[in-house]
Design a protein that fits this description.
about 500 residues, mainly alpha, two-stranded antiparallel sheet, 5 strands, globular
Length: about 500
């Protein structure tokens, strides 16, 4: 009965978390789209535009996040805690590297498009280890079964959370940022030399968030802590100011991610557009007219496997690219055009598996199913065997299949592997007075949605399209979070506090 009560609390806590995320996403989407720019251009509409989003991301990662890291580490960590639960630091590195390895295998097994593999792997590697675990531990610590066994549950769980986060921060701000820069360079068509990557790697050692981790550790584990923290601390005014800035981090990061989500939805707020299930506007069958001001542009070079076809055009709302992996019959005469809302209507493949497209004012090119270039038709540009591709700098969605795979991997497969390892191996590693609580915290940190900070850093690096694709995938994770929270948290509570529940 006690476990059932806990399960109900977990379900309520998970539902509250998901509800909060949905409300934040709605605010972000509205802020991204309104007020509308007189031209109707979504990129120029809203309270935050492209460059202002990038500037906000810079401020967040340079000021707000470092302040938050310093305050939380300085407050939470002590020498005694580090001695008891130091394996949590190692676990965070194992969790990230093993997640990357599993994702690397799965994107190849399920043939995720090559252009998106780096984003997919990066997004599954770095979980959100702070906000959701702290919310869930607050719920669980109020349960009699846990409260009776852990009198200082909330304070201890907060400390344990930041032991893991410290290892995560070191890995993300060194290797994770290099990976983001590498993905951005690849999608821009540049391939930096290894020497350049090494300089970037060394340069990341001076990242403000990483420096704040080091300062936070030194402050927390030395007598310096008495000067910053405590009611009589002489430098408490510095701590208070830093805390004010740090408290803004989560809100600003959330707004950046959800505004990014709003910018990614080019045509409408219909759920099918979020998932990328449509490649043309509903009910549109006639060829629309391209504005006469549109200029010709060609498909950017890239590497895709044969059979991938893309149309790249100047639309009324900006540069648009539609990939025809998931083909649909949009126009009866085999032509492409624009719908009334500026959405590019793609062309279905013909029976001969060759692209047929002719749009006034728009250059298109394609490759047939055997890899041969498509002959010129009207103003169609001849493609070569090596220079065909999609413009991944502009595509706003992975497509529903890849998004579904991402949710399954990040919210089911990887959490199941992590939780299984903790349940069966944790008692061999954690033997202190708070061993059960430390393992329960690890379970919570193993099942959270991922990639919030990845979206922010993508915006900071100027890779808006990748940030938009990731924002769509991230929001979908929260809809899968309620059942996964319920199952895995119930397993953890039953494993570590089952005896306490049964004895009450």
């Amino acid at each position: 009965q006690r476990v059932m009560e806990i399960s109900r609390e977990v379900l309520a806590g998970g539902a509250t978390t998901v509800g909060s995320v949905i409300m934040l996403s709605l605010v972000g989407v509205i802020a991204a789209r309104y007020p509308k720019h007189p031209s109707g251009d979504l990129a120029l509409s809203g309270l935050l535009q492209g460059e202002s989003l990038r500037a906000a991301a810079r401020v967040t990662t340079t000021i707000f996040v470092p302040c938050l890291v310093f305050i939380k580490l300085g407050q939470a960590l002590t020498v005694e805690i580090i001695k008891e639960v130091w394996p949590m630091f190692i676990w965070s590195i194992i969790q990230c590297t093993s997640s990357a390895a599993v994702a690397w295998l799965l994107v190849r097994l399920f043939r995720v498009r090559r252009e998106f593999r780096g984003e997919f792997i990066l997004a599954t590697t770095f979980c959100n280890l702070v906000a959701v675990p702290l919310v869930m531990t607050e719920v669980l610590c109020q349960q009699p079964a846990i409260a009776s066994a852990e009198p200082n549950c909330e304070a201890e769980t907060a400390s344990f959370v930041f032991v893991t986060v410290s290892g995560w921060n070191i890995l993300f701000w060194i290797l994770g940022v290099v990976a983001i820069e590498h993905i951005t360079n690849q999608q821009e068509g540049t391939s930096p030399k290894h020497k350049h990557m090494m300089r970037s790697l060394l340069g990341n050692l001076t990242n403000p968030p990483l420096i704040s981790v080091v300062i936070g550790f030194i402050t927390a584990l030395t007598p310096i802590k008495n000067g910053f923290f405590g009611e009589t601390a002489p430098l408490q005014f510095i701590t208070a100011a830093t805390s004010t800035l740090g408290n803004a981090a989560v809100g600003v990061m959330s707004m950046i991610m959800f505004v990014t989500l709003g910018k990614s939805i080019q045509s409408s707020l219909h759920p099918k557009d979020w998932l990328g299930l449509k490649c043309c506007a509903k009910g549109t069958s006639d060829k629309a007219t391209i504005p006469p001001t549109s200029s010709k542009t060609t498909v950017d070079s890239g590497n895709v496997s044969s059979g991938h076809i893309a149309l790249t055009c100047n639309t009324p709302s900006g540069f648009a690219v539609v990939s025809l992996d998931d083909l649909c019959e949009c126009t009866p005469d085999g032509t492409a055009g624009f719908s009334d809302d500026g959405t590019l209507i793609p062309v279905p493949l013909s029976a001969e598996k060759s692209a047929v497209a002719h749009v006034d004012g728009c250059d298109t090119s394609g490759m047939d199913g055997t890899g041969r270039s498509v002959p010129n038709q009207g103003n169609v540009v001849r493609a070569t065997d090596t220079n065909m591709g999609i413009d991944v700098k502009q595509a706003t969605s992975w497509g529903w299949k890849t998004q579904l795979l991402f949710v399954l991997v990040s919210m089911l497969i990887l959490p199941a592997l992590r939780v299984t390892a903790i349940l069966f191996l944790g008692h061999h590693v954690f033997t202190g007075a708070h061993a059960n609580l430390a393992q329960l915290v690890l379970v919570l940190q193993s099942i959270t949605p991922t990639a919030n900070l990845v979206v922010v850093v993508m915006q900071r690096e100027g890779n808006r399209a990748a940030a938009q694709r990731l924002s769509r995938a991230v929001i979908l994770q929260y809809f899968a979070a309620i059942p996964t929270f319920l199952v895995f948290v119930s397993l953890g509570v039953g494993k570590f506090y089952g005896d306490a529940s049964g004895s009450d």
